[in-house]
Design a protein that fits this description.
136 residues; mainly alpha; Serine Threonine Protein Phosphatase 5, Tetratricopeptide repeat
Amino acid sequence: MLNEGGRHEGALAASEKALSLDDKYIDAWKLKSNALLKLRKLPEALAAAEEGVKLAPDNVDTLTSQANALYESGKFDRALPIYQKVVQINPNLEIGWSNLSELLNQMKRYNEALTAADRASRLHLIPQVGINVPML
């Protein structure tokens, strides 16, 4: 929530507090990485993401944090297999395909980027399962 509201310093402080209590708290590593990424502290963001991946190597959130830090650092060749692993683990993850498409586009692999973008857009059209509560 803090990261989403633009309060990246607060998100960083909260993640560090959580990690001081439990250094195996995966979501705190993800939060820390994302906050550092927003603060443009790229090496630190990558280090935090990699700690999360050590704890949960097949978790799409930790992998996405790692790939995002690599992408923002311009390390496209290292980010690519991680984004590919994300969509392999969860082929119905729209943001995974979108991230992969964006990376492939940056790498000038346009046909592959279009294929990934098409996959993301088709997933976007799938209605989300939930309860429809009418507005009163």
